[in-house]
Amino acid sequence: MTMQTADHTVTFAPHSENSRLLRDAFGRFATGVTVVTTHSEDGPVGITANSFSSVSMDPPLVLWMPDKGSRRFRYFEQAERYAIHVLSHEQAEICNGFVKNAHAFDQLTYQLCQNNVPLIENCLARFECKRFAAYEGGDHLIVLGQVMQAEMRTGDALTFFSGKLGQIAPK
After folding, report:
1. Over the stretch 10-22, which tens digit does the pLDDT of each residue have?
2. pTM for the whole thing?
């Protein structure tokens, strides 16, 4: 059973036979959308991720969680340097490009930083990170990164809610 209306509540204990319900429940939390990039033996690579959060101000730490089942996991599992790009509502095509292709840089304006990490331009925020720690997290890896350089600009956020992209505009 999936949730059909706002006034219908579904209560369940998560298990392998109702994983769709758990995914739907997780989808009730609106998140921003990021693209994480790094350098690899195959050139610049990126992955779309909505599992991102700030963690600490001192030291400046963020986390994100790549899926171990992703074909791109091998690129990010041991990455010592990477960049997390918070996308604006104008960058849905970038999000979708990296959902489909790890090497979706063809149509983008980007540059390589001094650590050879690809940096996508014109994002709402960008965090250039150095790997701080990683922890097992079930079917994901919990990656903590120390922010070495940050950049931000004004704009409206690209969001992900209930399996769909959207927009949040400040009032």
Report:
1. 888 888 887 788 7
2. 0.85
